[in-house]
Design goal:
Structural class: alpha/beta
Number of helices: 7
CATH architecture of the largest domain: Orthogonal Bundle
CATH topology of the largest domain: serine acetyltransferase, domain 1
Order of helices and strands: HHHHHHHEEEEEEEEEEEEEE
Oligomer: single chain
Helix content: 40-55%
Mean pLDDT: 90
Shape: globular
Number of domains: 2
Largest sheet: 5 strands, parallel
Number of strands: 14
């Protein structure tokens, strides 16, 4: 390897390292925060004062990550304070998500099992926490969080997406939800679903690129719904493997027609 190439890498690393947090630290923080909120086994026997200390430690951890991005101590603390002020409402929203999954998945024994064992819940939790930072206009960190969840669960939810309460993900592998997607309350999505953008619309375009999914919609496995002008009306059912680039009226049932032909077994 030539010295010139090594120098090129060195110069680039110096140029770009100043605006990014440490990736491993970001991943460690989101796992610690999830555990603090939802995994009581890790805190069994822990005194209230110890939990308060852990909470303060998490605040300091996040402030450091934000500072690595904006290099402004005052702003980093303001962002951290606002994030943790919103944490109780995010927590309540996530309990509703866990309850919705437990209610609608016959295989779920309880909401507690969903919280501990379900990758869909983990992906939703990381999304909701990341979305708070996204709304506070923190760069990079929300994407690091959600891409980490993506790598662990196979579920790709952009932190900019807007998702209502009681969100249900079943199985989850292969789900993609884009940045400007708007998903209403009590929506159910199965594995392999894409809520994405149409080819030809620039990713740098600030206009809506992704669909709106209204309240009570069910989207079955493998369905693809594309485009910022596409609206799926409330209480609609989208069948498996459906491809949609246009709006659907409320209370509709959209499905892909299957045709079965009898095999000719004649000799």
């Amino acid at each position: 390897m030539s010295k010139a190439f090594i120098k090129q890498l060195y110069d680039r690393n110096r140029q770009h390292s100043s605006g990014f947090p440490d990736k491993e630290s970001a991943e460690d923080f989101i796992d610690q925060l999830f555990s603090f909120l939802f995994l009581p086994a890790s805190g069994r026997g822990q005194a209230l004062t110890d939990m308060e200390k852990e909470f303060d430690s998490l605040k300091s951890y996040l402030s450091t990550l934000v500072y690595d991005v904006n290099h402004d101590g005052r702003q980093s603390q303001e962002v951290t304070d606002k994030f943790f002020e919103a944490l109780p409402s995010v927590y309540e929203a996530l309990l509703k998500d866990a309850g919705a999954i437990a209610k609608h998945d016959p295989a779920a024994a309880s909401a507690e099992e969903v919280i501990v064992a379900y990758p869909g819940f983990y992906a939703i939790a990381v999304y909701r926490l990341s979305h708070q930072l996204y709304k506070l206009q923190v760069k990079t960190i929300p994407r690091l969080f959600t891409e980490y969840a993506h790598s662990k669960t196979g579920i790709d939810i952009h932190p900019g997406a807007t998702i209502g309460e009681g969100f249900f993900i079943d199985h989850g592998t292969g789900i993609v939800i884009g940045e400007t997607a708007v998903i209403g309350d009590h929506v159910k999505i199965y594995q392999g679903v894409t809520v994405g953008a149409l080819l030809g619309i620039s990713e740098k375009d600030h206009a809506r690129r992704h669909p709106t999914i209204e309240d009570g919609v069910i989207i079955y496995a493998g369905a693809t719904i594309l485009g910022g002008k596409t609206v799926i009306g409330r209480n609609t059912v989208i069948g498996g493997n459906v491809w949609l680039t246009e709006s659907v009226s409320p209370n509709s049932f959209v499905y892909q027609k299957n045709e079965i032909e009898k095999a000719d077994h004649a000799a």
